[in-house]
Amino acid sequence: MSDDLSADALYYHRNPKPGKLEIQATKPLANQRDLALAYSPGVAAACREIVRDPREAATVTARANLVAVISNGTAVLGLGDIGPLAAKPVMEGKAVLFKKFAGIDVFDLEVSEKNPEKLIDIIASLEPTFGAINLEDIKSPECFIIEQRLKERMNIPVFHDDQHGTAICVGAAVLNALRLQNKQIDQVKLVTSGAGAAALACLDLLVNLGIAKENIIITDSLGVVYQGRSEHMDPFKAQYAVDTPHRTLGEALTGADIFLGLSVAGVLKPEMLDNMVEEPLILALANPVPEIMPEEARKVRPKAIIATGRSDYPNQVNNVLCFPFIFRGALDVGATQINQEMRLACVRALADLVTTDKTNMASADASEVLANAYAGQELEFGADYIIPKPFDPRLIAVVPPVVAKAAMDSGVATRPIKDFESYNQWLAQFMFRSANVTKGIFIRARENPQRLIFSEGEDPRVIRAVQVLIDEGCAKPILVGRHKIISQRIKQLRLHIRPDVDFRLIDPQNYDRHAQLAELYHDLMGRRGVWPAEADVLVRSNTTILASLLLHLGEADALLAGPVGSFAEHLKNGLNLIGLRDDVSSAAAMQMLILDEGTYFVLDTSVTYEPTAQQLAEMTIMAANEVMRLGITPKVALVSHSNFGSSDTPSALKMRQALHLIHQMMPDLECDGEMQTDSALIESIRNRLYPKSPLRGSANLLVMPNQDAASITFNALKALANGVSVGPILLGMKQSYHILSRVVTTRGVVNLSILAAVDAQSLKEGSR
Ligand SMILES: NC(=O)C1=CN([C@@H]2O[C@H](COP(=O)(O)OP(=O)(O)OC[C@H]3O[C@@H](n4cnc5c(N)ncnc54)[C@H](OP(=O)(O)O)[C@@H]3O)[C@@H](O)[C@H]2O)C=CC1
Ligand SMILES: CC(=O)C(=O)O
Ligand SMILES: [Mg+2]
């Protein structure tokens, strides 16, 4: 490791707080009442519930989502027996990976105990605390016995990551590499460096996948493990001892197709590669430094496929690709073990993710996240891409469901999943934080798919989003754009939607209705200074105008303008050609903001610069109805610099008047004001100022006195609190007309599209 990387790593671990994780409460603990619920006396109710039925531990404690990462520090990475204390950074690392990639909570437990019997007793006694056990960096051969005995004793999954997590990733990499090299698995010769936990488990799985045992030679710190060797042997190594004249790694590699290194740094010398076939597969997986550096191997075997355990080279074969996702699937069905069926399902899912252009629930927008995360890297199945990348957001969507299914089919699931569609939607939240909030909208959009017209149909984000909408069955898209460009982009993005089959395509360069639409445009705009000749030019050149006219004619149910062009320009077209609802005097834009603390809405970020009290009241009612449509109960605060009449500035008076109007227009709405933002969000502060406020808990819809306040608040919250936004949701238009922002992602297009679809449905049903 370079001195620079070491220094950076130490800085990373030390700042801003020592270590990599902390515990966070998931429930409020702000007052006497919370204390009574969380702790004595209320907590006793939860205890009694578990006494009544132990399965309730999964509903009243964090256990079902809690994994123990346990090590005694005897085989830490390739650093050897450095002890449990020095192993702690690695275990904290595993913990944060579990959380980051799969939302699983972990306690890392470094145990100072080398005696297998005692360690087994210690770990077995932890069963009440955890939903599963991940053993880590425990040396062989003890690890085999420890795992086996714990599996027998415990009724929760026990998984030795260095064995099975590694084996699963190696299995997927080998299958894909052999496919590229056009080699049959039962014909290849494999040699290991290492005969420990990881190596032997990989071999067990590879034999299961078809490698012939007689084609394997294993080597350890003493060289080849041959039949008859007595020194430094154990029964686990002995299973792979072969009758061979070779005694060294170099000799053993003669004619070998695969080198599998799970030992220590630098043991594979370049000259040893001369003995291998011309196109070998070199898996040099020791961490942090591999058995051979890829550039050295490449000099001797230029056609080799090379993988390491590191993230700074292509083909990172590392168990991080497996453990978060296999545990997610196992925990979600309450599996009592992680068995071979589940492991094989995981191998296939990892291999397929790279080789198959498979569409899954969120593939098209997930691909954009993947492409952005690995900008500039080749993500086409090939010698430098045989295994998924750790930040591939599809892993969480694809692996847990197949693992869960395998657990159910093999009879080890205690809480089988009944509805995989909902489960998939739930998993999507790990890829996209908005997924949990929008899940109900997806379902509604799918019930009655609407015709959504996209005026910028050539934009890659729109094309990807259309793929998702079609895969999800939630819309009948219409794209405005040049046929040739859209077809090319579909191909470049490796999507599978077909123009004129899966979606309607309107090519403005080859459209026979320009004259008719130009006349309509002139009819609508003739008294606003648009001449017939101009109408003709605008309809031909401005796709938002063309799409708006089709929406006006009822040939589409909803329109998504942008993401090219300014919000103001698109809004102007919408107001001109679609117009406002009869009962409102202006439109408004609401942003949804998803933060760790919850989901909030901010109004009006982009339309009316200085709304009147009447306009504020109208937009609040529209916004509250929209929030309800999302399945969330609106709790409205009219925010201000003034707190319940503490100031009589024009702005404070305006908010008070707006409140008065809202009470008249929608008496049941939980709404109060004017108040400062902290009073709006924190009930205890509000209670000190005005305990009789009808608003309870935290407000979730913040109505701002003007556009500056709304825009500033929204952007500050989004930036500082790492928020995800959905919007702007345009309110008040006569038809479902929405505007995509210039910086929108594919997921953002999908989200606004389904909101637009549901808006169109409500319009048809007369419920908005
Ligand atoms: N990329 C990945 O995802 C993973 C990589 N690994 C890496 O694999 C390696 C082994 O881990 P693990 O199996 O858990 O540890 P173990 O302690 O169980 O096994 C280590 C093995 O390496 C062998 N070894 C040690 N020194 C040499 C040497 N000089 N020449 C040849 N072999 C040697 C040992 O030989 P002996 O039996 O003679 O003592 C033993 O067989 C580590 O580098 C680890 O980082 C592990 C898990 C996952
Ligand atoms: C990756 C891992 O678990 C190891 O190197 O031990
Ligand atoms: Mg490990």
From TrEMBL:
Residues annotated to bind NADP(+): V76, L77, G78, L79, G80, D81, I82, G83
Q: Which residues form the active site?
A: K94
**InterPro entries from the UniProt entry:** Aminoacid_DH-like_N_sf, Malate_Decarboxylase, Malic_N_dom, Malic_N_dom_sf, Malic_NAD-bd, Malic_NAD-bd_bact_type, ME_PTA, NAD(P)-bd_dom_sf
GO MF term list? acyltransferase activity; malate dehydrogenase (decarboxylating) (NADP+) activity; metal ion binding; NAD binding
According to the entry, every stretch annotated as the Malic enzyme NAD-binding domain falls at 163-408
| Coiled-coil region | none
Listed under GO biological process in this entry are: malate metabolic process
Q: Which domain of life is it from?
A: Bacteria
EC numbers, comma separated: 1.1.1.40
The top EC class is oxidoreductase
Residue positions annotated to bind a divalent metal cation are E136, D137, D162, N287
Q: Malic enzyme N-terminal domain spans which residues? A: 18-151
Give the UniProt keywords, A-Z.
Answer: Metal-binding, Multifunctional enzyme, NADP, Oxidoreductase
The record's catalysed reaction(s) read:
oxaloacetate + H(+) = pyruvate + CO2; (S)-malate + NADP(+) = pyruvate + CO2 + NADPH
Concerning Pfam families, the annotation shows: malic, Malic_M, PTA_PTB
Q: Which cofactors does this protein require?
A: Mg(2+); Mn(2+)
According to its UniProt record, which protein family does this protein belong to? In the C-terminal section; belongs to the phosphate acetyltransferase and butyryltransferase family.
Report the protein name in the record: NADP-dependent malic enzyme
What organism is listed for this UniProt entry? Answer: Thioflexithrix psekupsensis
The top of its lineage is:
Bacteria, Pseudomonadati, Pseudomonadota, Gammaproteobacteria, Thiotrichales
